[in-house]
Specification:
Length: 118
């Protein structure tokens, strides 16, 4: 089955940067990573999981939540079956567990913690 493994989270000061990675594996039935749109979501303590960014499969069209527009950049490397989230100018409000998600099969990763604090 499809598996998503996130990495790159950690503790960073406000204004700092982090890059998250999500490596996908386990695709079958003739569909590979490059066939699917990929997303990042996040969930802060006591809050619901929310959409952060997405990137389509072929044309790599991106979408962002208003709260991260201009600060975060989603990208993908289809040869490495990996999706990235470059996060710049981080704010304390960005503190959350960040999850990778593949549309279609609707599979979630296990999440990686991002903490923005001085």
């Amino acid at each position: 089955q499809i598996q998503l493994v996130e990495s790159g989270g950690g503790l960073v000061q406000p204004g700092g940067s982090l890059r998250l990675s999500c490596v996908a594996s386990g695709f079958t039935a003739g569909y590979t990573f490059m066939h699917y749109d990929m997303c990042w979501y996040r969930q802060a303590p006591g809050k619901e999981r929310e959409f952060v960014a997405s990137i389509t499969n072929v044309y790599q069209t991106t979408e962002y939540a208003d709260s991260v527009k201009g600060r975060f950049t989603i990208s993908r490397d289809n040869w490495k079956s990996t999706v990235y989230l470059q996060m710049d100018r981080l704010e304390p409000e960005d503190t959350a567990v960040y999850y990778c998600f593949v549309r279609g099969p609707a599979v979630w990763g296990q999440g990686t913690q991002v903490t923005v604090s001085s």
